[in-house]
Amino acid sequence: MKRFRNALIFFVSLVVFWQILYWVRNAPVLLPSPFTVAQYLWSAIWDGTLATATWITTKRLLIGYGIGCVIGLPLGLMTARSKFLGDTVGLLALGLQTLPSVCWVPLALLWFGQTEGAMLFVVVMGTLWSVLIAVDNGVRSLPPIFVRAAHTMGSTGAHTLLKVVLPASLPFVVSGMKQGWAFAWRSLMAAEIYVTILTGYGLGHLLHFGRELNAMEQVIGVMLVIISIGLLADKILFSPWENFMHRRWGTSRA
Amino acid sequence: MSIRNELENTLPAKLVVEDVSKSFAGRGRRVQALDKVKLEVGEGEFVCLVGPSGCGKSTLLNLIAGLDQSDSGRVLADGNPVVAPGRDRMVMFQEHALFPWLDVTGNVLFGLKLKPGLTRKDRREVARYYLKLVGLEHFMDSNIHELSGGMKQRVALARALAPNPRVLLMDEPFASLDAMTREQFYVDMQKIWAARRKTIILVTHNVREAVCLGDRVLLFSAHPGRIREEFKVTLPRPREFNSLELAALAGDITRALKRHTAEEAAA
Q1: Are strands B199-204 and B167-171 parallel, antiparallel or unpaired?
Q2: Which end of chain A is least crowded, N or C, by CB within 10 Å?
Q3: Strand partners, A58
């Protein structure tokens, strides 16, 4: 309760500070008041633009992220366990991971056109390589004693992989998935802002239109929504895992 | 009680090590870790392997466990050649090797879940029995990182005993514990061994520990690893770690160990 109160006081003072800045600067086009932004958000919620855009963006993100994880997790396990795959696919992943995922956008547009396919491709590329590399690192840094101990208790093959190797590398896997999420989210926003996708307008487009129309309250409003989605995703997707690791491993809570 | 069969003391196994050799690729040359080692361990016998670090005692233990394969010679457990790890031969490692993603009970259940023919309820009862045996019945739901070093090794012992193996292989399990915890462990270990008859091989470099626990103490020498000398310990049980008789015998064995080490250095 105390933490909640502290956070509340902090954010209320931020808004107050913003309002004071608005009074002092008195340039509503560049810095609208918190009230104007709230007004925009209120109307955008009621006319459905915000809901539609949020839905379109989250859908792209979740589907692409899901695909990236589903491919990246087993691939990471395999590159860590097989020398051949490590020297080939692992090296490729390492190279591609250093490529900022926004750089996939031009290629995606040429391949897929201004469609959902292009957006999904960008999100998958943002997710896949960092998840793969995190799992690979996690499995490689496992103390061999875990697997040996499991073998003495009669665990072999797939059982060892699923019940020992995977849970043992959970801290790495989760941090890799978190990084993949961040990359995917950033690249999707960048793509949405600078490319018009004909199959649906996401939050990035809303932000872009705000700039075109010089509607600063829209720009700030949408930014707030984007921040909230990021926070929410962190709490829903990753907090449960982090709490579990905190309890079991005794690691500090992120 | 449904788990009575499961908890019944099975006949401890007889182990035979026949001319086992094993070498490793070291820096540019091969290191002969074991050279034609012969060893027989009777049913229910407690044998301690003592020697300097790097003399191959852990290697021998791993071969008996089936975690490694020998270059030549073979290991027989009850007449059957050992080719892979098996539930009849459980290992307790120097590092506790407990799984941090499972709680205490989860760790003990790990091996039990791989044992066919037990219901969920049976497994939990068996786990409870062994955790009680090692004195941790109040820590069944604890997480591994919350336990002290001694308690972790107790969980590791419970985990090794739970599938009811016939052989228990212990690789310096007390080495990382403080002296107080260790001495308590010797007392408890003797009680547990009396309750759960197993054939035990304990690897250690602590001579007094070997004399306190073992029926027989075997001295290992390094380069190449061989068994040099054997001492029978006939002191009555339970043995008191700090007793004079024990200390005297440990002194004799330590002197023999030093003599072997000096001979090796001279050779």
Answers
A1: parallel
A2: N
A3: none
Do A148 and B93 lie within an 8 Å CB cutoff? yes
Range of the domain at A130: 33-249
Residue-range domain boundaries for chain B: 10-103+166-266
> What chain B residue is nearest to A244 in terms of C-alpha separation?
B101
Q: Is B103 on the interface with A (CB under 8 A)?
A: yes
Token pair 């068994």 is at which residue? B227
Give the C-alpha separation, A176 to A170, whole Å.
Answer: 10
Neighbours of A107 (CB within 10 A): 13
Task: Tell me which chain A residues have a C-beta less than 8 angstroms from the C-beta of B101.
Answer: 167-168, 170, 248-249
Q: Which residues of A touch B111 (CB under 8 A)?
A: 153-154
Average pLDDT for runs of 10 along chain B of length 267? 73 86 82 88 93 84 93 90 91 92 96 91 94 94 93 95 93 90 92 90 93 94 84 92 93 92 80
Question: B10-103+166-266: which CATH architecture?
Answer: 3-Layer(aba) Sandwich (3.40)
Q: Which residue of A has its CA nearest to B115?
A: A154
Q: Model ipTM?
A: 0.89
Count the domains in chain A: 1
Test A168 with B85 for CB contact under 8 angstroms.
Answer: no
Q: Quick one: tokens of B38?
A: 């012969």
